[in-house]
Structure formats: structure tokens, C-alpha cells
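This follows on from our talk about sequence and fold. Can you supply me with one protein entry, sequence and fold together? Could you add the entry underneath, on a fresh line?
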Amino acid sequence: MEQPNATGDGDAALTPRFWLIVALTGVATGLFGDFLMWILFGVQHLAFNYHSGELQAAAKRASDARRVLSLAIAGVFGATSWYLVRRYLKDESTDIDDSIWNGDGQLGVRRSFATSVISEIVIGMGASLGREAAPKLMGGASASVLAGWARLSPAQRRLLVACGGGAGLAAVYNVPLGGALFSAEILMGSLALPTILPALACSWIATATAWVYLPNHATYVDIPSFRFTTSLLVWALLAGPVIGLVASGYVRLIGRVSHHQVSGPSMLIVFPIALTALGLIGIKYPQLFGNGKDMAHSVFLGEGSLGLLAALIVLKPLVTAICIGGGGSGGLFTPTLSVGAVLGGFLGGAWSLLWSGTPIGAFAIVGAAAMLGASMQAPLAALALVLELTHSGFQIMVPMLAAVVIGTAVTRHVDGYSIYSARLSAR
């Protein structure tokens, strides 16, 4: 913060015209979030006869053949669609992170829209990717178009695109504060007042607009209000370094498969094989289908044996890497959170054999926050997102802070990359 007397806006002047475009970006982002989630839910219904509750429950009810067939079809559809989009719209940019960090915030509307729709369809059919990438991209693309229409400066456009990106996350997960911090801490790398104010405005407008279709309650419902225990605090101090090291390995895995991602005609063969493999693995582990939301929810509620959690710790990063390496386009936010939740649940379950009295769900929430903070290299955004997603965790804030700080510091010391910067094209 530029205290004690912060009056300047820096390169991106917060003019009345800029504030008007911030509001319009928020509305557009919220509506795009509704549209993309409508597509996602509709495809999930067709693929797994999913109506409400948990997708993994619907996947368990589906036959083995239906599970594999759904992923195989998703692989063929995704490979063909993305190949055509990337071939015929190759001159348009769809990398919102790169456009902010290394460019002027320009994003191609046609390719962004097509990529987003394809992504939600493929994820709805079971691909292990995050659903937030599409609304994040469309929020940024909306901002890019509106900035051009209003003739904003390049600095204003970059800030606006960052606000739109975070607002996309905020809208589909009902996390306005977390979305604003995502814009500021991750996309802009600054918590200065001229950055955080428009980010907050854009996120709350997008979130409120999305309530036209999406619910206004927590993403993870019925999570207990866990109590602080000394056991949990001691565990957090010990688990923080472990989670930091796991996060570093996870980031390196994502970076490696991103830099060696299959492209061109080869994708038409590799991506269907990758998703069919996921379908076969999902016969035994349907928790792996989709972005991992239900997987995290289950462990937040204390469900799952140590053996199952151990398997999911290994398999979820693996199948997510397969989807990305095979040529898929999607997010990493919820897959990362779910890995942190099962890792926290597993380590906490083992710890409870030595020092009982703390629910598994409390370990899972602390683990999810630490994994997010370390993997995104954004501790404030991670804490806010977990608190808003679960509407729980306030009483265990001290252990959460301990694990997040230690885990993030360890990952930063190893190499400092995040799941977003590790995917950037080599310069």
C-alpha cells in the first residue's frame, strides 16, 4: 500500500471513463460466467445424468462403459475442435497471464470464446481440468474489447484485463474478495490501492450479476465450523514444509507438461488416448472426473480412507498433467485445491493416529489453503478463497496462516514458479 498519503494512480489512471468500463466489464464477466456454467451443467447432465449434488456420485451410478465412452468422446471432440481453432485463429492471443505480464492486454475475442466453450464441454464430460479458466479468459477478453472501445491506455487495459480475469473466477465460485485478490496479487502482482480498488469493484459486480443464474451460497456447503486445537497447530508447523515441497513438485510437473504439450495433428491422436485413459482409471476412481470439486468436498466432510486419499494424491496431479500435456486447455485452480485437501486429509489422518481429537476436515482445509498459497505463490488470495469457498476456517486461522506461510516460503525457496508462471511460453 502506498501509505501514508496515497493520491497518485501510477500508469493506469483511474478516470471516470475507466470506472465506467470497470463496471461494464463486471457485468459482462458475470453474464459470461452464467453462460459458461450453463453449458457445463448441461453437458454434465447429458454425460452422467447429473442433476444436483455431487458429480462423482452421478459418475459412480453410471456404468463403466458410459464413463469410458464419455471421456473418449470428449477426447475426440476436444482434440478436433481445439486443433481447428488453433490452426485458423492462430494469430489471436488467448493467454491472459502472458498478455498482462509480457504484453499489452490484447486478447482475441473469437479464439477466446471458442476455447472457453470447448473447455467447458470437455470438462463437463469428465476431463480433469479447472472450470474457472474459461470465465477467467472471457472476463479478460471482455475487458480487452471494452478497453479498445473506450480508447484506454495500454496500462489501463492491462489493469482492466486483470480485473476481468479475477472477476471471472469470482463470478463462478461466488468469491468476490478472493477474485479481487487473485487479480491484484497474482495477475498484477500489486496490492497498491489503485490496483485493489478496481479489482474489488469488478469482482463484486461480476459476482452479483452471476446470481441471475448461479447460487449465492458457498461453493462447498455444510462444512462444519472447526475448532482450534493445539494438535492442529503443531501439525500445521510440521506439514507446512511437506506441502511446500509437494507444491514445488506439482508446479514443476505442470510446467514440464505445458512446455511439452502436444500440438498440431498429433493432438488428434494423443488427446483422445489421454482422456480414454482417464476414463479407464475413473472406473475405479470416479473422484478423478471433472475439476476435483467433489473430491475436495468429501474430504472437507471427513470422508475417505487413508488408502483412498493416498491414491488420489498421486492420481489427481497425474491425470491433470495428462489432460494438459495431451493438448487440453483448462484451469488448475480447483485441481490444485483438491490435491491440497486430500494431501491435508491424508497427513492429518496419519497424525491423528499419534494425537487424536482433530477432525480430518480441519486438516483438509488447512492443507487446501497451504497448497493453493504455495502453488499460486499468493498466500493472501489462497486464504481468502478457501474462507469464501467453504464459509469455514475462521476459528482455525492461526494454523492456516502457519501452513500457508511456511508452505509458500518453501516453494518460493525451491524455485519461485507458480502454476501460472510455469506455463508461460519460453522467452
User: Anything to note?
Assistant: The CA atoms of residues 75 and 272 lie 4 Å apart.
